[in-house]
Write a structure and sequence with these properties.
Blueprint lengths: L43 H7 L3 E3 L3 E8 L6 E6 L5 E5 L19 E7 L9 E8 L7 E5 L2 E6 L2 E6 L9 E8 L13 E2 L5 E5 L6 E4 L4 E3 L10 E3 L22 E6 L7 E7 L2 E6 L5 E5 L8 E5 L4 E2 L12 H9 L7 H5 L12 E4 L3 E7 L11 E6 L4 E5 L1 E4 L2 E4 L2 E6 L6 E6 L5 E5 L5 E2 L2 E2 L10 E7 L14 H8 L4 H14 L4 H8 L4 H11 L6 H9 L4 H13 L5 H7 L5 H11 L5 H11 L7 H11 L3 H12 L6 H9 L5 H10 L5 H11 L5 H15 L1
Parallel strand pairs: 17-21
Antiparallel strand pairs: 1-28, 2-33, 3-4, 4-5, 5-6, 7-8, 8-9, 9-10, 10-13, 10-14, 11-12, 12-16, 13-15, 16-17, 18-19, 19-20, 20-22, 23-24, 24-25, 25-28, 26-27, 29-30, 30-33, 31-32
Helix pairs in contact: 4-5, 6-7, 7-9, 8-9, 9-11, 10-11, 11-12, 11-13, 12-14, 16-17, 16-18
């Protein structure tokens, strides 16, 4: 698979004919070297022959963009504004754990730039952007102009090409994590968001994230990084990003997702309690998506809509316990095997955001949002994603569902080749998909099959309509008109250049941006809005125009921009508190989190009154908004509903609350003779998340009733 904790589903994969299977074991276990299988045929001819084993979706074809020896073991990828493919290689994967392998690539792994200079759809030029032992199997690369943000634990480097020769000549440290050795569950790739921010995540091997004191730290271009003074990152909620601390509130645990400025400032923790979440994908409305790895064959691979500030349930929120014990108890009570993935991520616990989709066994890797027009309609504006376990590139067409979403699965590219291990997917300026293939019999879990540089393989494919030939990318941003055209690119690196240029132009770009804002494409309108609302002196005008828009996604974008700009949110939440869209009201609730205005309480009650008792996304948004103000909000809600609290929707609110008055109401529900045994378990579980004498009194009442 790929070095992203790629743990194969139960069973093993057969590779060479007649050769015994090579099992990939859990990445949390100690490293164990497995015998290497026979060498796989390699080289351009072998790569071309393997293409016959691929099946693309109707109307599409996969072509070979690059192969070994030009590139080997691609761990992560980005595509720049010129259509060049940047690859972090993993020849030196897991050397710290496998001393017996020796140094496979002396001098360290490479970051290479692959270029199709004659526009025939195949790479014909290779440039080594950077090579060093500190970037062995770097798990992320994000190309922003002449800079590349490279995630290579324990460091996040900013590598800069100052003279334009395609080679890094400056190295800086942006962040430092606590991972001591090369590990799949560490810091992953950064992406540039439509708000001008950076988004990234890390897996659950990272216990602490640190920043150099004084900001980004310049270090020598090559070799070990000298020691420097650093400090634990503290996010905008005032919490240290350190999962080993017992004092954290909310309880940051396991893998986490983040947002920050390009220099690492204004740091936000967006979600936590993932296992090994791989890359964030952010659409034009600012909605965040990602995948998360299961416990190695336990049918729990999931796709997440990252509702901001949520707990995602990999371990018990209160105790940190894994899911196994709870699953055994559930089995004893008759839970079906089909429910196991829900216990895997504590989906039955209050305070856990639901999963968008569970895809079974697998090894999820790179993810992106396809906002181009080249591919068929079914793939447009959708999540595209690699899963190296079942060897597939998929899309997950999403539909609105209450305050959240539902999704289905559409395959884009599959292969019958057991060495096909898709590690990342990106969108080029031409609208084509580019897919990196680590190409190995089995890799991940601290191991890989191919351990000789001369036999290593690695491929990059282009997926596009049959016979497609791309024009040379036009990425000029030297005028407002050109920059607005570039802003509409499906390629993130191009949009970065456009966004930066337009934001610098300020009012001089307004006329051209208004043309896009007044168009019919909601996603392009949202991109224009992000910049119009950052025009000095016009912020309020454009935010308010967005909030009054007929498109709910634009209203959501407007509210998110208001939050980002630190505007007074109360008037805007008042305006939207009875919006017909549950998703808009969800964003209102997120905007109320930690808001100390007296009006925040009344607004929360207004929003809570619109819960229908069926929408878990909406319920969790209510809970997120209550954080640190549970008693105030809950008391106001009780005063409003009075004796009418005991409805399906009211019971939901009680179950999700951690307020002091909730236990007494839970006791009433549990001791009610009409409450089924399953419902009693459901409401009893809620008491596990509440502390204090009120809980003790409720337990006495429940115990007394049970004895009668």
């Amino acid at each position: 698979m790929t070095p992203r904790c790629l743990s194969i589903a139960r069973g093993a994969l057969a590779f060479a004919a007649g050769f015994t299977a090579f099992a990939v074991f859990a990445a949390d276990e100690p490293a164990k070297t497995k015998p290497a299988p026979p060498a796989h045929p390699n080289g351009p001819a072998a790569a071309a022959e393997d293409m016959a084993k691929m099946t693309a979706a109707a109307g599409l074809e996969a072509t070979l963009f690059a192969s070994e020896p030009m590139v080997v073991n691609p761990a992560d990828m980005d595509v720049d504004e010129r259509g060049r493919v940047w690859i972090t290689e993993g020849a030196n994967y897991r050397l710290a754990m496998h001393k017996d392998w020796g140094i496979i690539r002396p001098g360290g792994d490479r970051i290479v730039i692959l270029e199709d200079s004659n526009r025939d759809g195949k790479a014909d030029k290779l440039t080594v952007f950077y090579q060093d032992m500190t970037v062995n199997t770097a798990l992320g690369i994000c190309v922003l102009g002449n800079k590349a943000i490279v995630s290579a634990s324990p460091y996040v480097f900013v590598l800069t090409d100052t003279d334009g020769d395609g080679k890094a000549d400056k190295r800086e440290v942006l962040f430092q994590d606590s991972v001591k050795n090369d590990h799949d569950h560490s810091t992953h790739a950064f992406v540039f968001g439509p708000d001008g921010k950076l988004y990234f995540n890390h897996g659950n091997e990272v216990k602490e994230l640190r920043r150099p004191k004084g900001g980004i730290k310049s270090v020598p271009l090559n070799g070990p990084v000298p020691q420097f003074e650093s400090e634990t990152v503290v996010d905008l909620a005032g919490n240290p990003v350190n999962t080993s601390l017992k004092t954290n509130a909310p309880p940051y645990r396991q893998g986490m997702a983040f947002r920050c400025n390009l220099d690492g400032s204004e740091f936000e923790t967006l979600g936590w309690n993932f296992r090994n979440n791989y890359e964030l994908a952010v659409d034009s409305f600012g909605t965040i998506w990602q995948s998360d790895n299961d416990d190695d064959g336990n049918r729990g691979v999931r796709i997440n809509f990252v509702m901001e500030f949520g707990n995602y349930g990999y371990t018990d929120e209160m105790t940190g316990a894994s899911w196994g014990a709870g699953w055994k108890q559930a089995q004893a009570k008759g839970a079906s095997e089909e429910e196991r993935p829900f216990y895997h991520f504590h989906q039955y616990d209050p305070g856990v955001v639901p999963n968008l989709l569970q895809t079974g066994n697998g090894s999820p890797t790179g993810i992106a949002i396809y906002e181009g027009k080249l591919l068929p309609e079914v793939f447009r504006n959708q999540i595209v994603h690699c899963d190296a376990g079942p060897r597939v590139e998929r899309a997950y067409p999403v539909k609105n569902s209450g305050a959240g979403y539902s999704a289905t699965i559409e395959n884009i590219l599959t292969s019958s080749d057991s060495w096909y291990r898709p590690s990342d997917v990106c969108v080029g300026p031409d609208g084509a998909l580019y897919i990196a293939d680590w190409n190995d019999a089995g890799v991940g879990g601290h191991n890989m099959a191919d351990r000789k540089l001369e036999t290593m393989t690695g491929r990059v494919y282009r997926v596009a309509p049959k016979g497609f030939k791309a024009d040379k990318p036009d990425y000029k941003v030297n005028s407002a008109k050109n920059a607005v055209a570039a802003l509409q690119s499906p390629n993130q690196a191009t949009r970065y250049l456009a966004w930066t240029a337009l934001n610098k132009m300020q009012g001089k770009a307004e006329k051209e941006l208004l043309k896009l804002w007044n168009g019919s494409d909601a996603r392009m309108r949202a991109r224009a809005l992000q910049l119009l609302a950052r025009t000095k002196g016009s912020e309020k005008k454009y935010v308010e125009a967005a909030l009054a828009d007929k498109d709910s996604d634009i209203r959501i974008t407007g509210l998110r921009i208001a939050r980002s700009l630190k505007m007074d949110l109360i008037p805007y939440v008042k305006q939207l508190a009875k919006d017909p869209s549950a998703q808009v009201r969800r964003e209102c609730l997120i905007a109320l989190r930690h808001n100390q205005s007296p009006d925040a309480t009344k607004l929360w009650v207004t929003l809570a009154a619109q819960h229908d008792g069926k929408d878990r996304w909406y319920l969790e948004a209510l809970g997120i908004a209550m954080d640190q103000q549970e008693n105030k909000f809950f008391d106001a809600w009780l005063a409003q509903v009075g004796d009418q609290w005991n409805t399906p929707a009211g019971r939901d609110v009680v179950w999700r609350s951690r307020a002091n008055k909730a236990p007494a109401l839970l006791a009433k529900i549990i001791t009610d003779k009409s409450t089924s045994a399953k419902e009693k378990d459901h409401f009893m579980r809620s008491l596990d998340f509440i502390k204090g004498p009120e809980k003790d009194a409720a337990l006495v009442e429940i115990s007394t009733a049970a004895l009668q």
